[in-house]
Write a structure and sequence with these properties.
By secondary structure, this protein is α+β, with helices and mostly antiparallel strands. Helix content is about 35%, strand content about 15%. It is built from 22 helices and 25 strands. Strands 5-4-14-13-12 form a five-stranded antiparallel sheet, with helices on both faces. A hairpin with a 5-residue loop joins strand 1 (about 50-55) and strand 2. Bound molecules: zinc ion (ZN). The site of zinc ion has 9 residues, from loops.
């Protein structure tokens, strides 16, 4: 009996415990599902990034909720029907059936992921995604998953399905830093969400799942494939579906809600902490730059160029005043969302000033004479020589640095670098901020001075501004800074003066570029153009005391330009942007003010030189010019004979065997990456040179020029009497 009773009471106690525990679990369950929601999570202001303003306070980019005139926060009672339908089709087929968490969705996701051997589906309901967006948890731990699940269950108990869907549409990311479907439909299609067609809605609904992977502006094919999938899942009436399938999506050209989209992207990437971020940009100048680019659009298209990057730097502060990455952010077919200011490309001749700056730092001057003649330079590869050619295929003999740089001749620049060594130029360029030059000096070789290594427009502008700053570099900034920043000397004031004086010398470049074109201004501007391998990139970079302006024209997929050179592609845009930027800096154009960009320092003096020798003229020198020479060097006088007839040794006619004088037997030629193919011709010379018929690989050719093509070649010369000579060459 006693034992029995004890058992009974034990059982009762156990039941009591169990009941209590069950009640607790039940209450906990109820609390989980019906417990309170932190209302501040739902405050629209919580869910958008900062307001980005220009240097004068003009808004460049603002959180949606704060823009009073467009109340773009979608409400449950005005759900745009088509996007709601497309979103459910894309994200959560059972949205109206589950209670926040869907076992079926999770099971389906697991099956699909196992089949695909990777995560293709998250198994999250729209409600769970809302919870995730509200909590903004970026760590994917079990704990955050549980918190999100709890919030999802509570959302379902507190709000209607339509309210939850509205929250989702307001918060979801649609790529390109666009949150909320209202801004997305405005940005991509220039319409309010209510006006989206089924095809547009399906497209937008497919974006949030992987906003970067489906970025329509960067990879339109994948985005379209996903759109078609969503369209099928929308269960539209047959005729509506068929029409939607055929609809061609046209992205909005002029509905850009943001001034300087690429720039804003860069600023947001800095993850600034302030609610209001004051940037360096000048919105007025930026809009002018955009206007200049669109005014040139047709001309650029004629040259096969679809993208333009332009940036303007304030030299004194190092702040970016204008920044346009492609000329058309929403030009999806041509990679408009790519930021051309920071894209690495071949700079062509725009690196030449740094070769000569380095030369000036090591004892040369603008009067130093270099040889512009057919020459071959050894490379790091044994038996391979580098044979640079000039733009026009001509050689000009002895040439002073001033003419060589101003006229952008290739051969003297390579001859100069051969004296200095590619290592020292590479070190100099890296020190100037060209961080993309990460290969060895052997890898780049002497072609480094002709721009065969890739750099960015941002780096070029930053480095050029050191010339305007008399040799000093300062860190550049996307933000408006109060205090001036520390600077560091890259080269001497004299080097900065010489380079600037040459680049702003319209007379010195006239023999190569003509005059009165886009490189000439009614006040001093230092300017350099560049064109890369096979005309893929076209550049113009220049500066005044106040600003440095850089322009790149090309295609992100590297399609070559047509008939465009440094003077016709980027230069007209450069010209207009430079005028606008100087006007902004000065208030008015300083027309006729010939104050040099960089003042001559005390250690140069303006003296007369012989144009041929670069030395002080003697009485026989036929042409005399003014030049700035170093004060510390003793005056050397020209000792050339300056006779009209050439050196007598050449005139001494020699009886000789018929032979090929050029190319030499066994020579190796490198195809020059910076020249157009038609300029890559090899001049063939035989001696004596009358009535020579040339053959290449036993094929007769016309004349005495042969366009280089890669491979081993046998070149044969036959004279009138049938005498012949052959050489073998290799072209790489
Ligand atoms: Zn002379």
């Amino acid at each position: 009996m006693k034992v029995e009773r004890r058992r009974l009471s034990e059982r009762r106690r156990l039941a009591g415990w169990l009941g209590g525990a069950l009640a607790a679990v039940g209450l906990f369950g109820l609390w989980i599902v019906y417990g309170p929601i932190d209302e501040s999570l739902l405050d629209p202001n919580q869910h958008h990034s900062q307001t980005i303003i220009d240097r004068n306070g003009e808004i460049l980019y603002e959180p949606l909720a704060q823009s009073g005139n467009r109340s773009q926060w979608i409400e449950a009672k005005h759900l745009p029907e088509m996007i709601a339908r497309a979103t459910i089709a894309a994200e959560d087929h059972d949205f109206y059936k589950h209670r926040g968490i869907s076992g079926r969705a999770i099971a389906r996701a697991i099956v699909r992921n196992v089949r695909a051997m990777r995560v293709v589906e998250g198994g999250s309901t729209i409600t769970q995604q809302v919870a995730k967006l509200l909590l903004k948890s970026d760590k994917r731990t079990l704990w955050t998953k549980l918190r999100e699940a709890k919030l999802a269950l509570r959302l379902e108990s507190h709000y209607s399905k339509r309210e939850i869907l509205a929250l989702y549409l307001n918060l979801a990311p649609y790529g390109n830093r666009i949150n909320g479907v209202a801004r997305a439909s405005h940005t991509y299609f220039g319409v309010v969400p209510e006006s989206l067609t089924p095809a547009q809605a399906a497209f937008l609904a497919s974006l949030p799942q992987r906003p970067s992977a489906f970025n329509p502006l960067k990879d339109s094919e994948r985005a379209r494939a996903r759109q078609r999938y969503v369209l099928r899942a929308m269960d539209l009436p047959k005729d509506v579906y068929e029409r939607a399938e055929k609809e061609e999506l046209r992205f909005s050209d002029d509905a850009q809600p943001v001034v300087a989209m690429h720039f804003v992207e860069r600023v947001l990437a800095l993850q600034p902490k302030e609610q209001i971020v004051r940037t360096s940009l000048d919105a007025k100048l930026q809009r002018q730059v955009a206007g200049i680019i669109s005014a040139q659009k047709n001309d650029l298209l004629r040259h096969g160029a679809h993208s333009v990057a332009v940036a303007v730097l304030d030299n004194a502060s190092g702040e970016w005043l204008a920044w346009e990455g492609s000329g058309n952010y929403f030009g999806g077919d041509f990679g408009g969302a790519i930021d051309g200011v920071i894209a690495a490309r071949q700079p062509g001749s725009t690196l030449k000033p740094f070769t000569y700056a380095l030369a000036f730092e090591s004892g040369r001057s603008p009067a130093t004479v270099l040889m512009d003649e057919p020459s071959s330079f050894p490379t790091s590869q044994e038996g391979v020589v580098y044979t640079p050619r000039n733009y026009d295929g001509r050689y000009r003999g002895p040439i002073r640095v001033r003419s060589a740089l101003a006229g952008s001749q290739n051969v003297p620049a390579v001859a100069m670098l051969d004296q200095l060594g590619p290592e020292s130029l590479l070190r100099f360029l890296r020190n100037a901020g060209f961080k993309t030059l990460d290969k060895t000096a052997d890898y780049y070789g002497l072609g480094l001075t002709l721009g065969d290594a890739e750099v960015t427009l941002e780096q070029l502008i930053t480095a050029y501004s050191a010339f305007a700053r008399e040799g000093r570099v300062i860190p550049t900034s996307l933000l408006h800074r109060q205090a001036p920043t520390a600077n560091r000397r890259l080269f001497s004031q004299r080097t900065a003066f010489w380079i600037t004086d040459i680049l702003s010398d319209a007379d010195a470049r006239e023999y190569a570029f003509g005059s009165g074109g886009n490189l000439d201004f009614p006040f001093p501007v230092a300017v350099k153009t560049g064109t890369s391998q096979a005309y893929r990139d076209n550049w113009t970079i220049g500066y005044t005391k106040d600003v440095t302006v850089g322009v790149w024209v090309g295609n992100f997929d590297r399609t070559p330009l047509r008939g465009s050179s440094g003077v016709t592609g980027a230069a007209p845009i450069f010209n207009a942007v430079m005028l606008a930027a100087v006007k902004h800096a000065r208030g008015a154009l300083p027309i006729g003010d010939m104050t040099p960009v960089v003042a001559p320092p005390a250690n140069v003096q303006r003296v007369e030189i012989c144009t041929l020798s670069g030395l002080r003229p003697s009485t026989y020198c036929p042409a005399i010019q003014q030049e700035w020479l170093p004060t510390e060097q003793p005056a050397r006088f020209c000792d050339l004979r300056h006779q009209p007839d050439v050196a007598p040794s050449v005139q001494m006619a020699r009886k000789e065997e018929f032979h090929i004088a050029s190319p030499p037997d066994g020579a190796t030629y490198l195809i020059d990456p910076t020249l157009r193919r038609e300029f890559q011709a090899l001049k063939l010379k035989a001696s004596p040179s009358n009535n020579v018929q040339w053959q290449v690989n036993a094929q007769k050719i016309d004349g005495n020029e042969w366009p280089l093509s890669p491979g081993q070649h046998t070149i044969t010369a036959v004279d009138a009497s049938g005498k012949r000579d052959s050489v073998r060459i290799l072209v790489k």
